[in-house]
Amino acid sequence: MAKIARGVLIVSPIAAGTTPSGRPIATVTIARRDGDARKMGPASVRDTRLELTQEKTKVFVSLPIMPGLAESILATPTIGAIFVVTEFGKQFSVKGFGNKFRQWCDEAGLPNCSAHGLRKAAARRFAEAGCSNQEIKAWTGHTTDSEVARYTAAADQRTLSDTAADKLLANLAERLAKNTAKALKIQGNK
Hints:
Largest sheet: 3 strands, antiparallel
Number of strands: 6
Strand content: 5-15%
Structural class: mainly alpha
Shape: elongated
Helix content: 40-55%
C-alpha cells in the first residue's frame, strides 16, 4: 500500500503496518538509499528527527520526521532495532531490501516505482518546491551539486520558472518598499 501524506510518500505493504504475511512493520518515508533505509530503527529517532550516518558517503544527516511518518512510527509495533525486517525478523541485505521493496511496489499497484526511483522523485519534488541545491543535499545526503543536478534534471521547468518569477517579484516588491520608505524619509527631513 502506498500513499502520499502531506507531500511525503509513505509505503507499506498490504495493510498499513504489516508485511503480506501479517508481521508488524513500520512504514518508511523514502528519500534514503537502500543501504540506509534498511538500517533505520528506533535508535535512529532522536527527539523529532531521524539521524544517521550514511553507509555510502559516511555523511551524517539529521532530518525532521514528517507528520505522516511520525504517525506511522508511533502506530506500528517495531520488532527489535530495525523498522523494516525480513519475514524472519532479520535485517535486510541491501539487495534484499531493494528486491522486497520492488515486490511491495508491485503489490501496491506501483509497477514503475522502486526505492531508488522514489529517492530521485523526492529530490525532484524538492527542486520543484524551490529548494536550493544546499537544501536538497541536506535532505538527500548528496555531497556535490553535480549529484543533485542528476537527480533534479527531471524537475518540471514550468514549475521552476514560476517559482523563479515569484521570487523575482517578491524581491522587486521588497526593494521597491525599501526605496519608497527611504524616499519618504528623505522628503520628511526637508
